[in-house]
Write a structure and sequence with these properties.
The complex is a heterodimer of chains A (184) and B (229).
Chain A lengths: L2 H9 L3 H23 L2 H17 L7 H23 L23 H19 L3 H12 L4 H8 L3 H22 L4
Helix pairs in contact in A: 1-2, 2-3, 2-4, 3-4, 5-8, 6-8, 7-8
Chain B lengths: L1 H13 L5 H12 L5 H13 L1 H16 L11 H11 L7 H12 L3 H18 L1 E2 L4 E2 H26 L4 H4 L2 H45 L3 H4 L4
Antiparallel strand pairs in B: 1-2
Classes of the chains: A mainly alpha (184), B mainly alpha (229).
């Protein structure tokens, strides 16, 4: 089904369309929440809250180009609310590597899969070691694929600031990756 | 080849310094293939001779291939069911935006501070700032206003009931009606008296507190009162 037609049905209150919508976007929402809070259960709760918030505001559901940034903005705001309630961000992303089992694994031969898994864990560890600000930029720009304009709107900063922050974040990530010996 | 590289390196050392810093800045775009052809060509020439930059580029290429895979994570089989169970019971309500806005306002960390600030401001306005036309502060002015304008309005029905002749059906129950009206009037008098005394006490206390807080700054210290030897 065309994304526009699905959104129209969702706005009209079609329950089947809403279920399809949830299944279509749950991975992105959960993924962003997980990278913010660093815990699977918290991320599931936040992703649920995001969908409940979306459901309560179906009349304001934007059309497709702005839909993903809008949903990611809701998720981010809920994450920030959680941090504010807890008065601090989680300490240094204290997540065991075994907890990363749900990171998507591409198909391929077992040796390649093992190699990919090891590199994914290294990249994830490098992400965990970034500062909060730089990790957020990598999350929004290079993981979620938002444009600089969208990021600037979401964070409430000028586009130039978003660009320079993104460059700084990439440089820090590059340093971490080189130090960890990640290679292609 | 090695000799020529060493010569290049030594020349760069004496002139602009190694170009690794420049490549450092461009490495992400180079790995993503977003540089213009000329800059790409120059960067590739540098990479041919710099193992450290080659390693950096390889790391970034790996990261760029892997990072998009982190966007879409599987929340588990039961997730969609849990969301649908929660939203099934929800129907958009007219009051929801207001309730949500209020909840968000109350979740703000400064809400308690702002409430305390407003309460202090209201207290100061009521006890310290004279109201034009009353020649008193807002607190006593409010008490005067209630005594002068509001109480007569509230007492009027009672007075009327007290003074006017009772309707015929009530005549039969005159003694009990009489007792009821008297007790109602006594309760009203007690209530207004208490309110008045409470208002006066509060005003007196706040004024005394204000005077006590103001005194040390205006009065001379005991040491300065002592006569000079």
């Amino acid at each position: 089904m065309e994304p526009g037609a699905l959104l129209q049905r969702v706005r009209a209150g079609d329950e089947l369309a809403w279920e399809a919508f949830v299944r279509q976007h749950q991975g992105r929402i959960f993924g962003l929440a997980y990278h913010y809070v660093g815990h699977t259960e918290d991320a599931r709760d936040l992703a649920q809250e995001t969908f409940v918030h979306i459901y309560r505001n179906l009349a304001r559901l934007p059309d497709d180009p702005g839909l993903l940034p809008w949903m990611l903005c809701i998720t981010r705001n809920l994450c920030m609310d959680l941090f504010r309630r807890r008065r601090a961000r989680p300490p240094a992303w204290d997540i065991p590597v075994e907890d990363l089992g749900h990171l998507a694994a591409p198909d391929g031969d077992p040796e390649q899969q093992l190699h990919d898994r090891a590199r994914r864990e290294l990249v994830h560890r490098a992400l965990r070691e970034l500062t909060d600000l730089n990790r957020e930029m990598i999350l929004l720009k290079d993981i979620q694929g938002l444009t600089l304009d969208e990021i600037a709107g979401l964070l409430g900063i000028p586009v130039g600031t978003a660009k320079s922050r993104s460059n700084r974040a990439r440089l820090e990530l590059a340093e971490k990756l080189v130090a960890m010996g990640v290679s292609s | 080849m090695n000799q020529s590289f060493d010569l290049t390196a030594s020349i760069l050392q004496l002139t602009s310094g190694p170009a690794c810093g420049r490549l450092h800045d461009l490495a992400w775009d180079l790995a993503a293939g977003q540089l213009d052809p000329e800059t790409t060509d120059l960067a590739r020439q540098h990479l041919d001779h710099c193992a450290a930059c080659r390693a950096r580029l390889a790391s970034l290429e790996a990261a760029q291939r892997l990072l998009p895979g982190f966007a879409d994570l599987d929340p588990g089989e039961a997730f969609a069911g849990a969301v649908l169970a929660r939203t099934r019971s929800l129907r958009p309500q007219a009051l929801d935006p207001f309730l949500e806005g209020w909840a968000r306002l109350m979740r703000r960390p400064r809400a308690a501070l702002e409430a305390a600030y407003l309460a202090t401001a209201a207290g100061l306005i009521c006890t310290q700032i004279p109201v034009p036309g009353f020649d008193r502060t807002a607190g006593p002015a409010l008490v005067t206003l209630i005594r002068r304008d509001v109480r007569p309005l509230a007492e009027a029905p009672l007075r009327q009931a007290w003074s006017s002749p009772l309707p015929a059906p009530a005549v039969a129950a005159a003694p009990s009606t009489h007792r009821l009206l008297r007790s109602a009037q006594a309760a009203w008098s007690r209530l207004t008296g208490r309110f008045q005394r409470g208002g006066q006490d509060l005003t007196r206390t706040l004024r005394a507190l204000y005077e006590r807080l103001r005194k040390p700054a205006t009065e001379p210290s005991p040491a300065s009162k002592r006569p000079a030897p």
